Amino acid sequence: MLDQISSKLESASDNKEKADILNQTSWEVKHTDLKYAFALSEEAARISRNITYKPGLAYSLCNQGHFYFLEKNYELALINLFEALRIFRELNEKNGAVSTLDNIGNVYFKLTGYDNALYHYLEALQIREELHDQRGQVTSLNHIARVYEHLGY
Predict the structure, then answer these.
(1) Which has the closest alpha carbon to 110: 63, 69, 153, 65?
(2) pTM
């Protein structure tokens, strides 16, 4: 795996592409090596900050937020996710925003903050409707149904 990543990074045309490769790879390895996923994502964030590459930074923050969620560090998860969401909104990057909203909803759901979870899941659903993303709408509706189930409806 390390050789494969090194090869991709060496063939990258610029630092934006390197940040994207690091973000993508960090997401791919999260379930097999979370520590390595964090390291890759942190490097993507470092590169993105150095070259003022906001999409790369937002995706690295979103990834790290999810990784913190996996570690049950919900406070740091929310800090990273809200910062990622702020950047995605600034960029009008709706796909990144919707993924981040799902992650925020998941954190609140885990913390039994069902009202906050529902708020973020509903916002994600609205964006998915605007994007005509039917598969994503199903995901959002499942999240919303899970909240209502826990609320006893």
Answers:
(1) 69
(2) 0.93
